[in-house]
Amino acid sequence: MTAPLAPFDDRDGTIWLDGRFVPWREARLHVLSHGLHYGGAVFEGIRVYGGRMFKSAEHAERLCASARELNYSLPFTADDLDAAARELVRREGIVDGYVRPVAWRGSEQISVSGAGATAHVAVAAWEWPHVFSAEAASRGIRLRTSTWRRPDPATAPVRAKAASLYNICTLARDEAEAAGYDDALLLDLRGGLAEATGANLFLVIDGALHTPTPDCFLDGITRRTVIALAAELGVEVVVRRIDPAELDRAEEVFLTGTAYEVQPVSAVDDRTYAVGKVTSRLAEAYGRLVRAE
């Protein structure tokens, strides 16, 4: 029998909400908030290693940029948000954990138009060392190709880390887990490889690193970090459209993301992969980098 989930709204601690540190259980929004009804929330995920956030300034800047993509501005600067997150981590005593900044439009307007609705921002943090078990992290996770696809950039704000875009990811992940897999692999609107539900995709083919062009999904901060690390290690990186059939050519497959870090993939549908040298070298280099900052 599956243990009940621990609700995130009933915990001890403090959350930064609209410029103030408030008790965790009091960090609430009204049921008629525009962001709840019309999918206008944007958010970030930041990892904490040894009490220090990794690339927190970049995440704060992207949160502000995501809000602008959805046509509203935050009442705080990226520097304000970065400072608030750092202070929250200090207050909560987070050593190895996760920080979740989120922004949304308020309750002044309940219609499709968001004009006139104020913007709100909150930052929460909690201990969270790993997404997958240590065994899964080392041996690799299994992906199932989803029936859902990433949207056309002309139909969705794909450059934003917008909550509305994660409906597709939730549906795909639920579909994959129901079939016995760990995560889903989504294709793009043209049928090419895109990403997993919360992480970017990399294939190792003939010793080189191949990754899909991020034209309809988020160009992740961890993705860019790993590409830079690969260059330092002398690994060729090729950014291009990748056909799903090329999974048959891949020697290694892995995912990257703030929560996933560098996560080996052991299977995609009926294809299987070993955790190879390129994946291992990049995972080790990433581990050193995040602990060094």
Q: Specify the biggest β-sheet.
A: 9 strands, mixed
Q: At CATH's second level, what is the architecture of the largest domain?
A: Alpha-Beta Barrel
Note the run of SSEs as H and E.
EEHEEEHHEEHEHEEEEHEEEEH
Shape: globular
- Compute the average pLDDT: 95
Number of separate structural domains: 2
Briefly, what CATH class of the largest domain?
Answer: Alpha Beta
Strands, total number: 16
Beta fraction: 25-35%
> Which class of secondary structure composition applies to the elements?
alpha+beta
Radius of gyration, in Å, reads 19 Å
Q: What level of helicity do the residues show?
A: 25-40%
pLDDT below 50 for ≥5 consecutive residues: which ranges?
A: none
- Ends distance: 41 Å
Per CATH, what is the topology of the largest domain? D-amino Acid Aminotransferase, Chain A, domain 2
The helix tally amounts to 7
List the helices and strands and how they pair.
Blueprint: E1 14-17, E2 20-23, H1 34-38, E3 42-43, E4 46-49, E5 52-53, H2 56-69, H3 78-92, E6 97-105, E7 119-127, H4 134-139, E8 141-149, H5 166-178, E9 183-187, E10 193-196, E11 200-205, E12 208-212, H6 221-232, E13 237-240, E14 252-257, E15 261-268, E16 271-272, H7 277-292
